Structures are given as structure tokens and as C-alpha cells.
Amino acid sequence: MTTIYHEDDANPAWIRSSKVAVIGYGSQGHAHALNLRDSGVDVRVALHAESKSRDRAREAGFEVPTVAEAARWADALMFCTPDVTMGDVYREFVAPNLRPGQLLLFAHGFSVHYGLIEAPAFVDVAMVAPKGPGHRLRAEFARGSGLFALVAVQQDASGRALERTLSYAWGIGCARLGMLETTFKEETETDLFGEQAVLCGGISALVKAGFETLVEAGYRPEAAYFECLHETKLIVDLLYEGGLSHMTRAISDTAEWGAYTAGPRVINDESRKAMRELLAEIQSGEFTRKWIAEDRAGRPNMARCREQDAEHPVEEVGRRLRVIMRLGHSR
Question: What is the pTM of this model?
Fold first, then answer.
């Protein structure tokens, strides 16, 4: 049965009386650290000695110890580093400095679920995963709101891991919206699948394919750009506001009928077969093994894909049109 926790379920006392180290100061890390500080928490930003983010964190007023120093100091450590390097950071700097009773927190379950991090039995291991990027987490907190979060407890050494996790979620503002109880496995596998099949991989591929189809048929690239990329924001905003039915009520009858008749022809049995294959690779760990190998090889295939996407005609047309639209807006 699905359990959703709310602000009344979170006790701020624990997080306000604890020492918290946020490891990393990127998109998620900076938002966690700033929100915690504004919630009255004693927080430091842990970074390696050569990190380019050290000056930025200091300018924001944080003490910036090394990761090893932070691991010795903190009651709770939140990992906000990249997935593929997190295991190395943990093994080299965190693991040797852990003590009984500490709480290890993660904003994504990847490293724990795939065994890149194996914590000792004497610490709590839990997750608070805000459902949105760091800049959004910070912006919503600053305006008195928050982001919904997924929470999970992987290891409860203290007997209070859930209470402490909900308290941390309160500190970053997620308790204001709600917190869905899940598992590291469920969060990791659904997150990777959603990114690959729908949100990032699926939408990007659909945009490019639609643009290419119209241009190959002789339509102007500018018109193809507006219809296949520019207007995606309008539809996504409607979906975010009220779901699928809200979106269909807001568009024209012609667009709605076209969606019903054409959608199943584009996303068909072959598409679903590919989705099931993607999910199986995520579940088995095959995707993770390949991604780690790509990273350790210097990411040559990722660099090639980035270059190809940057050179795609829809990007060239989009850059030109966005300049025109910005100039028009500023007049």
C-alpha cells in the first residue's frame, strides 16, 4: 500500500540538532545546503581539495571541509555527487571515517542499489530524492513551497532511520509538499527508465524524428521547429498542471482527436517492446555496467552523441529563432 508522509509526520528537532555535511555543490548539492541552512541546520559543504566549487561554496558562506573531514564531523552525510564517481568518493574518503549512529543519505538510489556503495551495518542508509532539479528545489523553497520527494530506508541501524530521514526532508522543504515512501530499487529503476524511455531519450528522439519528417517532406525548417519542439513546453505545462485529461481538455478538438488516432501508431507494439528491453537492461545492471565503462574510458561515445545533437538541424534552426524571439521580446 502506498504511504505518503506530510509535514505533520516530520519532526524538525532531529535535523536542527544535528551536524550535516552535503557532499558536492552542484545542482542538487547547492540547493540542499542552502535550504538546510535556511531551516536552521548546522551544515557544511564537503568537497575534495581540487574542486572547482570550493570558492562558490565559500562565497555562499559555507565552511568547506574535505570529504574525509566532513565524514568525521557530521551526524548525517548527504551524497550529491555524480553517480559514477560516488562509489570511489565513498570508499576513499567516507568509509574509513564512519562511526556508529551516523546517517548516510542519498538523493538518488543508483550507487547503493547497484552495489557501488556498501555501508557498514552500524550506520543508517536512507534516501531523500526531490522530484526536480536543484535550481527548482531551491526556488520553490525560497518562495515558501517545496518539491515532492521520494523517501526510502535501506538500512535502519539506529531504529530511527525513517524519523531522521523525514526530518532531513523537512529541512530541505520537501515535507511542505509530501514524501512518497519507496525503495532504493524502485526509485533507481523507475528513474532511469523514465529518463531513457520518456523524459530525455524518448522526447528528444521524437522531436528530432518529427522535425526530420516535415523537412524531408519539403516544409520549412522554421515551421517544423515550432511545431515539433517549441510547442512542447505548452503541452508539458498542461500535463504538469493537471495530467493527460487536463491537457486534452485545453487543446482543440482537432488536436485531441488527432492525438487519439495517431498516438498509438507512433508509440506501438514495437515501441513497447523496446521499452521492455530498456527496463530489463536497467533491472539486470547491464545499463549501469556499460555507463561506468563509458565513463572510465573517458566518455568517447557520449562526446560523439553530444556533438551530433549540437549539429542537428533542429538545433541550428532553434538557436537562430530563439535569438529573434528574444530580440522581439526586448523591444
Answer: 0.92
